[in-house]
Amino acid sequence: MKFRVAVASTDGIVINQHFGHAEKFHIAELDTDENTWQYLESRTVTRVCQGHEHSEHSFDAVLKTLCDIQAVLVAKIGNGASDYLENHGMLVYESPFLIDAVLEKILKDKIWEVDAWQSHMKN
Fold it and tell me: Is a pLDDT exceeding 60 seen at residue 35?
């Protein structure tokens, strides 16, 4: 099975961005049959957080850019933003660590086998 995750990172090495401040997401595709992952591309978005203000339009714009993504890996995310993404079918993980290590842990621990991932994979 293959699925995609979006990683909020300024350098492509560490998950170091707050969701609302991210201007770029690195997209990785995980292959659970081969137990491997690969970097696919980076996608630019407009920051959700403008000062301390958020709008539904800014969330929708990010969702549109990440429409083929099953999960987002961020350093930090507020409850409102997390709820919004989850209510629109995306899983959210705060994981302020090295990207390689987090993706390898997802594969090693078979995180996709959790019911929540299975239900999102059917979208």
Answer: yes
Instruction: Enumerate the β-bridge partners of residue 71.
Output: 5, 91
Residue 110, token pair as written in the block: 């078979």
Beta bridge partners of 39: 28
Averaged pLDDT, 50-76: 88
Q: Please check the confidence at residue 116 and state whether its pLDDT lies above 80.
A: no
The residue behind tokens 């999102």 is 120
Beta-carbon contacts of residue 55 (< 8 Å; ≥ 6 apart): none
DSSP 2-31: EEEEEEE-SSSSB---BGGG-SEEEEEEEE
DSSP code of residue 106: H
If one counts every other C-beta atom within 10 angstroms of the C-beta of residue 68, the result is 11
What pLDDT was estimated at residue 119? 56
CB 37 within 8 A of CB 100: no
Are residues 37 and 107 in contact, defined by beta-carbon separation less than 8 angstroms?
A: yes
**Which pTM was predicted?**
0.89
- Is 89 buried (19+), middle (13-18) or exposed (0-12) by CB count in 10 A? middle
